[in-house]
Amino acid sequence: MTPVFTTRDCFITLSISERWCKRDNLRQSFPAVSGNCHVIQMKIKKAITVLMSCLFAGALLTGCGGTDTGANTGGQSPKIKLGMITHLNANESKMEEILQKAQETTEVNILKYGITYYENLHLMQMAIESNSVDQISLYNSVADYVIASNNKYEKIKDNSLNHLNDSFCFAVRKDDTQLKTDLDNAIKTMKDNGTLDSLVDKYITNVDKDNLPKVDIPMIEGADTIKIGITGDLPPLDLTLADNSPAGFNTALLAEIAKNLGKNIEIVQIDSGARAAALAAQKIDVIFWAVLPNGEKVPKDIDKPEEVEFTVPYFQDNVAHLKVSK
Predict the structure, then answer these.
(1) Which of 125, 269, 279, 295 has its CB surrounded by the most CB atoms within 10 Å?
(2) pTM of the entire structure?
């Protein structure tokens, strides 16, 4: 490890050398030693000059014992490490590139974040509690649920995050046009008759965090089955109870859609990052959920694979960031 010297170290070294040379009147008794002392002092003074130059240069570039922080951040503060659920299509690098472009059209200082993906909420919570990340990015509904369930977390007070708002949709294969039409019609019907608002009130707005209701999905004998891929770990939207029973807003929505379409729904629990591949391989018929940015501030196709189509939205929510309470 390269030793780090400061100007204080240099002056202390010079002071010690002078005292050492003067001790016991060495300069008078031993001229050779006195001469050597003079040489030592001259060398030390030269060393100090070099070290001080390096210290000043280190503020501008890496080298001479300087750190590489400035090289990594362009002289700015280190990025905030942000945990995020793995997206359908955008990896960390692509997401940062897209968000950099969106920086000009949003009021959010997006460039201050360095993104790390996690497959589910549980892994994100482990990461923030072990200091692997500084914050985790969720939706307001999920953030409120997490805080109510565990008081070790708190929201980051940043009103600019309210400018990041997403719509939730189903995702289907592009060639599965009839299924997309059926889902669009079912969502529209539920919006028109108030069913969707009732589900939001029951399972999100007024949900009992300590007593989440189990959701029974009807089974219709002889009906076709639609396989739905869910993450099962994003309460109160997506979750599976301790007895493996499905619960949450999304599951309740699926139950209503099954009734509306007259079809059976089979839930397939899958990691977030594997959803698009499972859909393409026809292991599932629908991805539940996918997000579509609202407004013009973030590109609509930020997380949309080419072979996928989104349904009309069924829910909207703002982005929220959590940190561990001090």
Answers:
(1) 279
(2) 0.69
